[in-house]
Every structure is written in structure tokens, then in C-alpha cells.
Amino acid sequence: MDTPAKKYDRFSKIYDLFESPMEMRAFSKYRKKALSLAKGKVLEIGIGTGKNLPYYPEGVEVIGIDFSRGMLEKAEKRKKELGLDNVKLLYMDAQNMEFDDNIFDTVVSTFVFCTVPDPIKGLKEAYRVLKPGGTAIFLEHMKSNSRFLNIPLYLMEPFIKTLLGTSMLRETQKNIEKAGFKVEKVENLFFDIVRLIIATKPTEK
């Protein structure tokens, strides 16, 4: 049985083409909005093909990780095309990060925690490596609070899960809170299916 990483390795060759209609219509502007908030030393979880790279503010230092070597190859190519020397790409599983505690000023994920096999474990790792007082930026799609809006998500679920191991029906906002983050702001970008969630790691008392 294919793991999600193997599915993304295989799909990496056409991934950008597959997502291009959504990217042009909406996702690119969502990314620009989310990434404008990044500061300092940044960890991007699930960097994929590097679609966020053009939107980072000047002066940040970015470490991007992904569990798919195929996706990282695409991201490396995009990094070189953009001439970015402030970005480092690493092959790493979000559920078992090889970083010390409390080292990043900002953690970023965009459309990632629908795919991480154990989202709570991955989110707890994100919490662990974020500095106290640091900011986590989550641009994610998830289950709606509306039963009506969930109908197409349920219809898409078997196809998307088979293709990429992705679930459109995770309750990601609740998972973020379960991992220990304090949610500071939630902005619904496409109804409440796509949300921009800004969270923090509370400072120790």
C-alpha cells in the first residue's frame, strides 16, 4: 500500500498543473495574505513544490521541510529560479522533526494538515519547535460547520484520499487547539472550508 509520501512523489511531476486552476483563481492571493505575516526564522511545514516562496517578506530566513523527495526537487528548482539564498530545504517528516525545541519565530503550513497522517502529532511537533510567543500561520482547508457545504467534500473524499491520502473533512482548527496553540484570529477565505488561522504559543508563566 502506498504511503502519502510515495503518492506525492509520484504526483509531483504534475502537481502544479493539477492545482493551477485553483491557484490562479484564489490560492495565490490566499498565500500572499498568509505569508505577509511571517517574521524572523521561519519553518514551513510541507513546503511541497515551493509555491509559497515568492510571497515571503524580505529579511526572513526560511527552512522548508517535506516528506516527499519528488516535491522537494520541484521546490529546489523554484528556489533557484527565484534566486533565493535565504531558503534551506530539508527532507523531513512533520510528525518527527529533527529540530531542537523553541527555535523558530514563525511556523507556516498551507494546505498541509489535511494530509499529515497523524495531524495531532504533527501539530504538537510544530508547537514544540516554535518559540514561546511565536506565531503559527495555518492556511488550511477543512470540514465546514455547514452540513450543506460538507456534501461536496464528502463526495470528493474517496477520490482525493485515494489519489493523495488527503482528507477534506478534518477538523483542523480544533486539532490546532488540541495541540496547545492559542488561536488568535480566524478568517474564512472560502466560506469556512478554507480558513486562515493565526495562532500563538503562549509564553511560559
Automatic annotation (TrEMBL):
Annotated GO biological process: methylation
Keyword Mitochondrion: no
The protein's name: Methyltransferase domain-containing protein
GO molecular function terms listed in the Swiss-Prot or TrEMBL record: S-adenosylmethionine-dependent methyltransferase activity
InterPro entries documented for this protein: Methyltransf_11, SAM-dependent_MTases_sf, Thiol_S-MT
Pfam family, one: Methyltransf_11
UniProt source species: Thermococcus argininiproducens
Stretches assigned to the Methyltransferase type domain: 43-138
The entry's keywords: Methyltransferase, Transferase
Spans through the membrane: none
